[in-house]
Design goal:
Strand order of the largest sheet: 2-1-3-4-5-6
Number of strands: 12
Number of helices: 18
Structural class: alpha/beta
Shape: globular
Radius of gyration: 22 Å
Distance between the termini: 15 Å
Strand content: 5-15%
Largest sheet: 6 strands, parallel
CATH architecture of the largest domain: 3-Layer(aba) Sandwich
Mean pLDDT: 92
Helix content: 40-55%
Number of domains: 2
Low-confidence stretches: none
Oligomer: single chain
Order of helices and strands: EHEHHHHHEHEHHEHEEHEHEHEHEHEHHH
CATH topology of the largest domain: Rossmann fold
Length: 430
Amino acid sequence: MRIVHLTAGTGTYYCGLCLRDHALAQALRRQGHEVTMVPLYLPPVLEGGEGADGWCPIFFGGINVYLQQKSFIFRHTPGWLDALLNARWLLRWSAGRADMTKARDLGGLTVSMLKGMDGLQRKEIGKLVAFLSSQGPFDIISLATGLILGIAPELKRALGARVVCTLQGEDAFLDSLPQPWREQSWQLLAERLRECDGVIGVSHFYAQLMASRLGLPAGAITVIHNGIDLQGYRAAEQPPAQPTIGYLARLNRPKGLATLVDAFILLKQRPECRQVRLRLAGSCTEGDARFVDEQRAKLAAAGLTDDVDIMPNLSRDEKQAFLRSLSVFSVPATYGEAFGLYVIEALASGVPVVQPRHAAFPELIEATGGGQLCAADDPASLADGLATLVLDPVRARALGEAGRAQVGRSFSDDAMARQFADLCVGLKAG
Protein backbone atom coordinates (compact mmCIF):
# COMPACT_ATOMS: atom_id res chain seq x y z
CA MET A 1 0.00 0.00 0.00
CA ARG A 2 0.96 3.62 -0.47
CA ILE A 3 0.23 5.57 2.68
CA VAL A 4 0.60 9.27 3.44
CA HIS A 5 0.79 9.97 7.16
CA LEU A 6 0.27 13.47 8.52
CA THR A 7 1.42 14.31 12.02
CA ALA A 8 1.93 17.44 14.13
CA GLY A 9 5.49 18.29 15.22
CA THR A 10 6.50 19.96 18.48
CA GLY A 11 9.56 21.91 17.34
CA THR A 12 11.58 21.68 20.54
CA TYR A 13 10.85 18.52 22.56
CA TYR A 14 10.14 14.81 22.28
CA CYS A 15 6.49 13.79 22.48
CA GLY A 16 4.79 10.40 22.49
CA LEU A 17 2.73 11.20 19.40
CA CYS A 18 5.76 11.91 17.20
CA LEU A 19 7.66 8.89 18.51
CA ARG A 20 4.67 6.63 17.92
CA ASP A 21 4.12 7.94 14.39
CA HIS A 22 7.79 7.52 13.48
CA ALA A 23 7.82 3.95 14.83
CA LEU A 24 4.64 3.13 12.90
CA ALA A 25 6.04 4.46 9.63
CA GLN A 26 9.33 2.61 10.01
CA ALA A 27 7.59 -0.68 10.81
CA LEU A 28 5.16 -0.30 7.89
CA ARG A 29 8.12 0.23 5.56
CA ARG A 30 9.82 -2.90 6.84
CA GLN A 31 6.63 -4.77 6.05
CA GLY A 32 6.74 -3.62 2.43
CA HIS A 33 4.47 -0.58 2.42
CA GLU A 34 5.43 2.83 1.04
CA VAL A 35 4.92 5.60 3.61
CA THR A 36 5.26 9.35 3.05
CA MET A 37 5.56 11.34 6.27
CA VAL A 38 4.23 14.90 6.25
CA PRO A 39 4.90 17.13 9.30
CA LEU A 40 2.41 19.86 10.17
CA TYR A 41 2.81 23.05 12.21
CA LEU A 42 6.34 22.52 13.57
CA PRO A 43 9.38 20.31 12.86
CA PRO A 44 9.17 16.87 14.46
CA VAL A 45 11.69 16.06 17.19
CA LEU A 46 12.82 12.45 16.76
CA GLU A 47 15.32 10.28 18.60
CA GLY A 48 17.17 9.41 15.39
CA GLY A 49 17.03 12.91 13.93
CA GLU A 50 14.41 14.22 11.51
CA GLY A 51 16.52 13.88 8.38
CA ALA A 52 16.95 10.12 8.68
CA ASP A 53 13.30 9.50 7.88
CA GLY A 54 12.94 11.40 4.62
CA TRP A 55 10.26 13.77 5.86
CA CYS A 56 8.49 16.12 3.46
CA PRO A 57 8.53 19.91 3.78
CA ILE A 58 6.45 21.30 6.64
CA PHE A 59 2.89 22.26 5.78
CA PHE A 60 0.56 24.45 7.81
CA GLY A 61 3.65 26.06 9.35
CA GLY A 62 2.77 27.33 12.80
CA ILE A 63 3.67 30.95 12.05
CA ASN A 64 1.72 31.03 8.77
CA VAL A 65 -1.31 29.38 10.34
CA TYR A 66 -1.33 31.83 13.24
CA LEU A 67 -0.88 34.92 11.05
CA GLN A 68 -3.61 33.77 8.65
CA GLN A 69 -5.91 33.42 11.65
CA LYS A 70 -5.15 36.95 12.79
CA SER A 71 -4.93 38.93 9.56
CA PHE A 72 -6.63 38.99 6.14
CA ILE A 73 -3.33 40.06 4.55
CA PHE A 74 -1.54 36.80 5.36
CA ARG A 75 -4.29 34.74 3.70
CA HIS A 76 -3.09 36.13 0.38
CA THR A 77 0.70 36.38 0.77
CA PRO A 78 2.97 35.01 -2.00
CA GLY A 79 4.50 31.55 -1.77
CA TRP A 80 8.05 32.82 -1.26
CA LEU A 81 7.04 34.65 1.92
CA ASP A 82 5.14 31.62 3.22
CA ALA A 83 8.22 29.47 2.58
CA LEU A 84 10.39 31.93 4.49
CA LEU A 85 8.05 31.79 7.49
CA ASN A 86 8.21 27.97 7.31
CA ALA A 87 11.98 27.92 7.85
CA ARG A 88 12.71 25.21 10.40
CA TRP A 89 14.96 27.41 12.54
CA LEU A 90 12.26 30.06 12.75
CA LEU A 91 9.56 27.52 13.61
CA ARG A 92 11.73 26.04 16.36
CA TRP A 93 12.36 29.52 17.74
CA SER A 94 8.63 30.28 17.81
CA ALA A 95 7.87 26.90 19.41
CA GLY A 96 10.15 27.82 22.30
CA ARG A 97 7.92 30.82 22.96
CA ALA A 98 4.57 29.05 23.02
CA ASP A 99 3.55 31.12 26.06
CA MET A 100 3.10 34.02 23.65
CA THR A 101 -0.09 32.33 22.36
CA LYS A 102 -3.19 32.92 24.46
CA ALA A 103 -5.97 30.39 25.08
CA ARG A 104 -8.37 32.65 23.16
CA ASP A 105 -6.10 32.47 20.10
CA LEU A 106 -5.81 28.69 20.36
CA GLY A 107 -9.60 28.33 20.59
CA GLY A 108 -10.30 30.31 17.45
CA LEU A 109 -7.46 28.62 15.59
CA THR A 110 -8.63 25.12 16.56
CA VAL A 111 -12.15 25.84 15.33
CA SER A 112 -10.84 27.32 12.10
CA MET A 113 -8.60 24.31 11.43
CA LEU A 114 -11.45 21.87 12.06
CA LYS A 115 -13.62 23.82 9.61
CA GLY A 116 -11.16 22.99 6.84
CA MET A 117 -12.02 24.80 3.60
CA ASP A 118 -14.57 26.88 5.52
CA GLY A 119 -11.85 28.09 7.89
CA LEU A 120 -9.21 30.78 7.52
CA GLN A 121 -6.34 28.48 6.47
CA ARG A 122 -7.79 27.30 3.15
CA LYS A 123 -4.66 28.55 1.35
CA GLU A 124 -2.61 26.03 3.33
CA ILE A 125 -4.98 23.21 2.39
CA GLY A 126 -4.53 24.11 -1.27
CA LYS A 127 -0.74 23.91 -0.99
CA LEU A 128 -0.91 20.51 0.73
CA VAL A 129 -3.37 19.13 -1.83
CA ALA A 130 -1.18 20.30 -4.71
CA PHE A 131 1.92 18.70 -3.19
CA LEU A 132 0.31 15.35 -2.40
CA SER A 133 -1.40 15.22 -5.80
CA SER A 134 2.07 15.45 -7.35
CA GLN A 135 3.31 12.61 -5.11
CA GLY A 136 0.35 10.26 -5.45
CA PRO A 137 -1.60 8.18 -5.97
CA PHE A 138 -2.10 7.03 -2.37
CA ASP A 139 -4.28 4.26 -0.99
CA ILE A 140 -4.54 5.60 2.57
CA ILE A 141 -4.49 9.07 4.10
CA SER A 142 -3.53 8.60 7.76
CA LEU A 143 -4.02 11.42 10.26
CA ALA A 144 -2.17 11.20 13.58
CA THR A 145 -4.77 13.16 15.55
CA GLY A 146 -8.36 14.27 15.25
CA LEU A 147 -7.26 17.89 15.67
CA ILE A 148 -6.14 17.97 12.00
CA LEU A 149 -9.30 16.36 10.60
CA GLY A 150 -10.40 19.58 8.91
CA ILE A 151 -8.05 18.84 6.02
CA ALA A 152 -9.43 15.34 5.43
CA PRO A 153 -12.46 16.04 3.18
CA GLU A 154 -10.45 18.02 0.62
CA LEU A 155 -7.59 15.50 0.64
CA LYS A 156 -10.02 12.63 0.21
CA ARG A 157 -11.75 14.37 -2.69
CA ALA A 158 -8.49 15.27 -4.43
CA LEU A 159 -6.58 12.03 -3.85
CA GLY A 160 -9.41 9.51 -3.94
CA ALA A 161 -7.94 7.62 -0.96
CA ARG A 162 -9.43 6.19 2.21
CA VAL A 163 -9.01 8.31 5.36
CA VAL A 164 -7.92 6.81 8.69
CA CYS A 165 -7.66 8.94 11.83
CA THR A 166 -6.01 8.02 15.14
CA LEU A 167 -7.41 9.50 18.34
CA GLN A 168 -4.86 10.06 21.11
CA GLY A 169 -5.18 12.78 23.71
CA GLU A 170 -7.48 15.29 22.00
CA ASP A 171 -9.85 15.54 24.96
CA ALA A 172 -7.37 17.17 27.35
CA PHE A 173 -6.52 19.88 24.82
CA LEU A 174 -10.11 20.57 23.76
CA ASP A 175 -11.33 20.71 27.35
CA SER A 176 -8.65 23.33 28.10
CA LEU A 177 -10.11 25.76 25.54
CA PRO A 178 -12.40 28.56 26.70
CA GLN A 179 -15.99 28.74 25.53
CA PRO A 180 -17.46 29.00 22.96
CA TRP A 181 -14.52 27.42 21.14
CA ARG A 182 -14.50 24.34 23.36
CA GLU A 183 -18.05 23.32 22.47
CA GLN A 184 -17.63 24.26 18.81
CA SER A 185 -14.44 22.21 18.55
CA TRP A 186 -16.07 19.11 20.01
CA GLN A 187 -19.01 19.47 17.62
CA LEU A 188 -16.75 19.90 14.60
CA LEU A 189 -14.58 16.94 15.62
CA ALA A 190 -17.67 14.72 15.80
CA GLU A 191 -18.80 15.84 12.35
CA ARG A 192 -15.37 15.27 10.81
CA LEU A 193 -14.95 11.82 12.32
CA ARG A 194 -18.17 10.66 10.68
CA GLU A 195 -16.53 11.43 7.34
CA CYS A 196 -13.59 9.07 8.06
CA ASP A 197 -13.37 5.56 6.67
CA GLY A 198 -11.59 4.28 9.77
CA VAL A 199 -11.02 5.60 13.30
CA ILE A 200 -8.35 4.21 15.63
CA GLY A 201 -8.14 4.53 19.40
CA VAL A 202 -4.82 3.81 21.11
CA SER A 203 -6.49 2.08 24.08
CA HIS A 204 -9.88 0.62 24.97
CA PHE A 205 -10.17 3.28 27.65
CA TYR A 206 -9.72 6.10 25.19
CA ALA A 207 -11.85 4.55 22.47
CA GLN A 208 -14.77 4.22 24.88
CA LEU A 209 -14.26 7.72 26.25
CA MET A 210 -14.18 9.38 22.84
CA ALA A 211 -17.05 7.33 21.43
CA SER A 212 -19.18 8.47 24.37
CA ARG A 213 -18.19 12.11 24.13
CA LEU A 214 -18.56 12.27 20.35
CA GLY A 215 -21.80 10.31 20.10
CA LEU A 216 -20.26 7.55 17.98
CA PRO A 217 -21.85 4.08 17.86
CA ALA A 218 -20.28 1.19 19.74
CA GLY A 219 -17.53 -0.41 17.68
CA ALA A 220 -16.98 2.70 15.55
CA ILE A 221 -13.42 3.01 16.89
CA THR A 222 -10.88 0.23 16.30
CA VAL A 223 -8.40 -0.21 19.15
CA ILE A 224 -4.75 -0.58 18.14
CA HIS A 225 -2.38 -0.26 21.07
CA ASN A 226 0.71 1.84 20.54
CA GLY A 227 4.00 0.02 20.07
CA ILE A 228 7.68 0.90 20.26
CA ASP A 229 10.82 0.01 18.36
CA LEU A 230 12.30 -2.56 20.75
CA GLN A 231 15.84 -2.32 19.40
CA GLY A 232 18.25 -1.43 22.21
CA TYR A 233 15.81 -2.07 25.05
CA ARG A 234 17.01 -4.73 27.49
CA ALA A 235 16.90 -5.45 31.18
CA ALA A 236 19.88 -4.57 33.36
CA GLU A 237 22.17 -7.48 34.23
CA GLN A 238 22.29 -6.37 37.86
CA PRO A 239 19.95 -4.22 39.98
CA PRO A 240 21.21 -0.73 40.88
CA ALA A 241 23.49 -0.45 43.90
CA GLN A 242 20.83 1.67 45.60
CA PRO A 243 17.06 1.17 45.10
CA THR A 244 16.07 3.78 42.49
CA ILE A 245 12.69 5.17 41.47
CA GLY A 246 12.46 6.65 37.98
CA TYR A 247 10.26 8.98 35.95
CA LEU A 248 10.51 9.49 32.18
CA ALA A 249 8.01 11.91 30.61
CA ARG A 250 7.62 15.61 30.06
CA LEU A 251 8.72 17.37 33.24
CA ASN A 252 5.45 19.14 33.98
CA ARG A 253 2.51 19.08 36.36
CA PRO A 254 -0.04 17.16 34.21
CA LYS A 255 2.31 14.17 34.01
CA GLY A 256 2.22 13.96 37.80
CA LEU A 257 5.78 15.03 38.58
CA ALA A 258 4.69 16.97 41.69
CA THR A 259 2.76 13.93 42.93
CA LEU A 260 5.84 11.74 42.53
CA VAL A 261 8.08 14.26 44.30
CA ASP A 262 5.62 14.43 47.21
CA ALA A 263 5.47 10.63 47.34
CA PHE A 264 9.26 10.41 47.37
CA ILE A 265 9.47 12.83 50.28
CA LEU A 266 7.00 10.66 52.20
CA LEU A 267 8.89 7.51 51.27
CA LYS A 268 12.19 8.86 52.53
CA GLN A 269 10.65 9.41 55.95
CA ARG A 270 10.48 5.62 56.39
CA PRO A 271 13.63 4.23 58.03
CA GLU A 272 13.65 1.21 55.72
CA CYS A 273 13.61 3.48 52.62
CA ARG A 274 16.37 5.91 53.53
CA GLN A 275 18.66 4.57 50.78
CA VAL A 276 16.14 5.07 47.94
CA ARG A 277 17.05 7.48 45.13
CA LEU A 278 14.86 9.35 42.64
CA ARG A 279 15.84 9.91 38.99
CA LEU A 280 13.77 12.23 36.81
CA ALA A 281 14.15 12.51 33.04
CA GLY A 282 12.16 13.76 30.08
CA SER A 283 11.40 16.71 27.88
CA CYS A 284 11.68 20.12 29.50
CA THR A 285 10.61 23.26 27.64
CA GLU A 286 11.28 26.85 28.67
CA GLY A 287 7.74 26.94 30.01
CA ASP A 288 8.37 23.86 32.18
CA ALA A 289 11.57 25.20 33.77
CA ARG A 290 9.84 27.23 36.49
CA PHE A 291 7.77 24.24 37.58
CA VAL A 292 10.88 22.04 37.69
CA ASP A 293 12.62 24.65 39.83
CA GLU A 294 9.67 24.53 42.23
CA GLN A 295 10.15 20.79 42.60
CA ARG A 296 13.88 21.25 43.20
CA ALA A 297 13.09 23.73 45.95
CA LYS A 298 10.61 21.33 47.53
CA LEU A 299 13.22 18.54 47.55
CA ALA A 300 15.85 20.89 48.92
CA ALA A 301 13.56 21.94 51.76
CA ALA A 302 13.17 18.26 52.65
CA GLY A 303 16.96 17.83 52.62
CA LEU A 304 16.87 15.46 49.64
CA THR A 305 18.80 17.35 46.97
CA ASP A 306 21.63 14.82 46.98
CA ASP A 307 19.20 11.91 46.56
CA VAL A 308 17.70 13.17 43.29
CA ASP A 309 18.98 13.38 39.71
CA ILE A 310 17.16 15.50 37.10
CA MET A 311 18.16 14.87 33.48
CA PRO A 312 16.12 16.65 30.79
CA ASN A 313 16.00 15.88 27.07
CA LEU A 314 17.82 12.55 26.83
CA SER A 315 18.80 10.93 23.54
CA ARG A 316 17.50 7.45 22.71
CA ASP A 317 20.68 5.72 23.95
CA GLU A 318 20.71 7.83 27.10
CA LYS A 319 17.04 7.06 27.70
CA GLN A 320 17.58 3.32 27.46
CA ALA A 321 20.58 3.47 29.81
CA PHE A 322 18.52 5.61 32.20
CA LEU A 323 15.73 3.02 32.30
CA ARG A 324 18.19 0.21 33.04
CA SER A 325 19.40 2.19 36.08
CA LEU A 326 16.00 1.94 37.79
CA SER A 327 14.37 -0.42 40.30
CA VAL A 328 10.81 0.80 39.78
CA PHE A 329 9.12 3.36 37.52
CA SER A 330 6.19 5.76 37.85
CA VAL A 331 4.64 8.58 35.87
CA PRO A 332 1.51 9.33 37.94
CA ALA A 333 -0.26 11.46 35.32
CA THR A 334 -3.09 13.55 36.74
CA TYR A 335 -5.31 13.54 33.62
CA GLY A 336 -6.95 10.87 31.47
CA GLU A 337 -3.83 9.66 29.65
CA ALA A 338 -4.90 8.00 26.41
CA PHE A 339 -2.06 5.49 26.49
CA GLY A 340 1.29 6.20 28.19
CA LEU A 341 4.13 5.13 25.92
CA TYR A 342 6.58 5.55 28.81
CA VAL A 343 4.97 2.58 30.59
CA ILE A 344 5.84 0.33 27.67
CA GLU A 345 9.38 1.72 27.49
CA ALA A 346 9.97 0.99 31.18
CA LEU A 347 8.59 -2.53 30.88
CA ALA A 348 10.68 -3.17 27.75
CA SER A 349 13.65 -2.50 30.04
CA GLY A 350 12.43 -4.99 32.64
CA VAL A 351 11.44 -2.26 35.12
CA PRO A 352 8.10 -2.72 36.97
CA VAL A 353 5.71 0.23 37.16
CA VAL A 354 3.39 1.78 39.73
CA GLN A 355 0.65 3.80 38.05
CA PRO A 356 -2.60 5.54 39.07
CA ARG A 357 -5.83 3.58 38.94
CA HIS A 358 -7.35 5.68 36.17
CA ALA A 359 -7.08 6.49 32.45
CA ALA A 360 -5.39 3.80 30.31
CA PHE A 361 -3.09 2.59 33.11
CA PRO A 362 -5.27 -0.25 34.48
CA GLU A 363 -5.60 -1.53 30.92
CA LEU A 364 -1.83 -1.53 30.38
CA ILE A 365 -1.11 -3.16 33.74
CA GLU A 366 -3.66 -5.90 33.04
CA ALA A 367 -2.35 -6.45 29.50
CA THR A 368 1.30 -6.69 30.54
CA GLY A 369 1.26 -7.96 34.12
CA GLY A 370 4.18 -5.63 34.70
CA GLY A 371 3.20 -3.59 37.72
CA GLN A 372 0.58 -2.47 40.18
CA LEU A 373 -1.89 0.35 40.69
CA CYS A 374 -2.33 3.03 43.33
CA ALA A 375 -4.96 5.67 44.03
CA ALA A 376 -4.92 8.57 41.57
CA ASP A 377 -3.51 11.95 42.68
CA ASP A 378 -2.58 10.51 46.08
CA PRO A 379 1.10 10.82 47.11
CA ALA A 380 0.61 8.59 50.17
CA SER A 381 -0.90 5.76 48.11
CA LEU A 382 1.85 6.13 45.52
CA ALA A 383 4.49 6.03 48.26
CA ASP A 384 2.96 2.80 49.59
CA GLY A 385 3.02 1.23 46.13
CA LEU A 386 6.60 2.25 45.49
CA ALA A 387 7.70 0.97 48.91
CA THR A 388 6.09 -2.41 48.23
CA LEU A 389 8.33 -2.99 45.21
CA VAL A 390 11.44 -1.26 46.53
CA LEU A 391 11.37 -3.48 49.64
CA ASP A 392 10.61 -6.68 47.72
CA PRO A 393 13.15 -6.80 44.87
CA VAL A 394 12.32 -10.42 44.05
CA ARG A 395 8.69 -9.55 43.33
CA ALA A 396 9.71 -6.37 41.53
CA ARG A 397 12.04 -8.32 39.24
CA ALA A 398 9.32 -10.91 38.53
CA LEU A 399 6.87 -8.16 37.54
CA GLY A 400 9.48 -6.50 35.36
CA GLU A 401 10.32 -9.75 33.59
CA ALA A 402 6.63 -10.53 33.00
CA GLY A 403 6.04 -7.06 31.61
CA ARG A 404 9.09 -7.25 29.37
CA ALA A 405 7.98 -10.56 27.87
CA GLN A 406 4.47 -9.30 27.16
CA VAL A 407 5.69 -6.06 25.63
CA GLY A 408 7.82 -8.12 23.26
CA ARG A 409 4.77 -10.15 22.23
CA SER A 410 2.12 -7.43 21.96
CA PHE A 411 3.53 -3.90 22.11
CA SER A 412 6.22 -3.77 19.44
CA ASP A 413 6.09 -1.38 16.51
CA ASP A 414 5.77 -4.38 14.20
CA ALA A 415 2.65 -5.59 16.03
CA MET A 416 1.15 -2.09 15.83
CA ALA A 417 1.97 -1.80 12.12
CA ARG A 418 0.46 -5.21 11.27
CA GLN A 419 -2.82 -4.27 12.91
CA PHE A 420 -2.80 -0.87 11.21
CA ALA A 421 -2.13 -2.45 7.81
CA ASP A 422 -4.85 -5.07 8.34
CA LEU A 423 -7.37 -2.31 9.04
CA CYS A 424 -6.32 -0.40 5.92
CA VAL A 425 -6.49 -3.49 3.71
CA GLY A 426 -10.02 -4.10 4.94
CA LEU A 427 -10.99 -0.51 4.16
CA LYS A 428 -9.57 -0.79 0.66
CA ALA A 429 -11.43 -4.03 0.04
CA GLY A 430 -14.66 -2.47 1.31
